[in-house]
Amino acid sequence: MPEIKVTPLGAGQDVGRSCILVSIGGKNIMLDCGMHMGYNDDRRFPDFSYITQNGRLTDFLDCVIISHFHLDHCGALPYMSEMVGYDGPIYMTHPTKAICPILLEDFRKITVDKKGETNFFTSQMIKDCMKKVIPLNLHQTVQVDDELEIKAYYAGHVLGAAMVHIKVGSESVVYTGDYNMTPDRHLGAAWIDKCRPDILISESTYATTIRDSKRCRERDFLKKVHESIERGGKVLIPVFALGRAQELCILLETFWERMNLKAPIYFSTGLTEKANHYYKLFITWTNQKIRKTFVQRNMFEFKHIKVIMPGYCVQGTIGHKILNGQRKLEMEGRATLDVKLQVEYMSFSAHADAKGIMQLIRMAEPRNMLLVHGEAVKMEFLKGKIEQEFSIDCYMPANGETTTVTTNPSVPVDISLNLLKREMALGGPLPDPKKPRTMHGTLIMKENSLKLVSSEQALKELGLNEHQLRFTCHVQLQDPHSDADTLHRIYTHLKSVLKGYTIQHLPDGTVIVESIVIKVSSSAEDSNTKVLLLSWSYQDEDLGSFLSSLLKKGLPSGIC
Ligand SMILES: [Zn+2]
């Protein structure tokens, strides 16, 4: 049976360094190539030695597909392509291709220039890596080679984020990357065809969360911000420069207008400026125009600060420590800082919640489900729910662990008109094409296509001679008569037992039932012992073995 194998090199029962290997129909695809925000050591990048211990990445992989520009999905890309070594195609959408190198460069600057780390990719490597990228359009089928095709779908989440449908023959896999099933203020909701993939690989960041309505969360957020300002306080919102920043800006902007508030909103410059540029450039990917009425000056002098964490904080990050109530922070070997602020966690993350994941399953109707990009305990819970509600298997492999799913691919076959006519003559009108029906014929492969024809036609088309295969067996019988009489008694017996069969007694001393030939001779030692020779063609295998066992029982007395 054909199989599809899925092995996470990262994001297996974890959030961070998404990197999933898929083997389908003899093709190997790497889905995402991210880094882990929570580590500074080897664990920062996926473990590519899983592949390289057996050879080069380029020889093994048919392509790499990047779902979106978040670093936990693309942060290891230049390391993989330029340092480990990969020269094959890399696919991502146009916005991802535009924004990805900016974030990679920013990441490199922080790691190398600020923290002084070595053994890291250079600016030139980022450029060289991006040269290998082939941009994808939404809903456009791209032929990677003769057999492997990929198609991108809108995933919401961040600008340019895509889900991808990977197909080889009739086998297919969908990888969601990160997605959002409810529209944002600035992006739409994820959508996919009812493509019935063999496996749907889904993120599961919020596997156990069912978020209340967005409106409530927004009202809650604005209320907290407003209260702090009324008290004369200040609000610091640490937010990823791309995506959530724009989302919250639109929210605050409209609120400020409505409430006629005068307190200034400051926005840190740098990445955000570039980000806003791309949001304008790829405006067709967004929901609504991003307004640009923010003061572009950095004036962060705080007395009384309220921090709102607006996203998911991976274990090991400062955000995660603050959220867990840590009051002292060690800053990368430098000074220890006291946390003198009030902290609130509010989810504005653009990930699908449990309800959204179930909604996507209903949309795509996969045969199997595989969860990545989530915590094991939460995955376990969602896995149970999915298996119960959809009666499909749900897998959650850890990093380096392979999930194998056997598939039942269907192969299209042309059927000759003659064979169909014969089938009609035998079985009445042609069957309902939606219902399976067994047909007999000879399968021939010609010019890369399969055809089912009658055996006579197959012989003719292939220029072959027909040979007949016959089975023979000897049956001993006690019958004190002449050979000719015994044969006649067999003929009479079979005529009474087998109704509806053509039975002939031929003058050459044989009895014939369909293709089965029966001959009689006497044993050399004892003329009362008869030896029956039965032979039949393979089509009459059932009848032949039935007759041999029938005759072994002997002939009833009283027949002549
Ligand atoms: Zn993401």
Automatic annotation (TrEMBL):
Compartment(s) of residence: Cytoplasm; Nucleus
SUPFAM superfamilies, alphabetized: Metallo-hydrolase/oxidoreductase (SSF56281)
Coiled coil (UniProt feature): none
Annotated SMART domains: Beta-Casp, Lactamase_B
Cofactor(s) annotated in UniProt: Zn(2+)
Predominant subcellular localization, coarse grouping: cytoplasm
Cross-referenced InterPro entries: Beta_Casp, INTS11-like_MBL-fold, IntS11_C, MBL, Metallo-B-lactamas, RibonucZ/Hydroxyglut_hydro, RMMBL
An annotated GO BP: snRNA processing
Superkingdom of origin organism: Eukaryota
Gene3D superfamilies for the chain: 3.40.50.10890, Ribonuclease Z/Hydroxyacylglutathione hydrolase-like
Listed GO MF terms: hydrolase activity; metal ion binding; RNA endonuclease activity
Domain Metallo-beta-lactamase as annotated: residue spans: 16-229
Gene Ontology CC entries for this record: cytoplasm; nucleus
Assigned protein family: Belongs to the metallo-beta-lactamase superfamily. RNA-metabolizing metallo-beta-lactamase-like family. INTS11 subfamily.
Descriptive protein name: Integrator complex subunit 11
Provenance organism: Neolamprologus brichardi
Taxonomic lineage from the root: Eukaryota, Metazoa, Chordata, Craniata, Vertebrata
